Amino acid sequence: MLELNDTEFDRLISQAMDELPQEYIKGLQNVAIVYADEPDEHQAAKAQLRHGSILLGLYEGIPLTQRGNGYTFVLPDKITLFKYPILMTVRTPAELFEQIKRTLWHEIAHYYGLNHDHIHGLENNHAES
Description:
The protein is α+β, with helices and mostly antiparallel strands and 129 residues long. The chain has a single domain, classed as Zincin-like. The chain is 49% helix and 12% strand. The chain has a 3-stranded mixed beta sheet with strand order 1-3-2. α1 (6-19) crosses α5 and α5 (93-111) crosses α6. The radius of gyration is 15 Å and the shape is globular. The model has no long low-confidence stretch (mean pLDDT 89).
């Protein structure tokens, strides 16, 4: 397994944000993007993580498509990338960066209220451009 300190992981997350479609990045409002070594018990339960499964990232919040007039004075939404599970899925630094970018993109898409099929369609369109 590759080794990576927190500073390097944070740098790769920032670099991935720079390479994702900027119209989606600029549209993020009241969203904290953080990282952790592993999901905690609450996050694992929220994601319905089964024994033996891994969780690479998690969006916690209210997607834009579900917000109504009463959406005020709320804590920031949170996107968490999980360092050790991501490291377990890659072999090279290039694969690591691509996995971070793909995971971040996936979680940002949840913020916009997109389902998995729509997310994968956008990923494919972005990869082709």
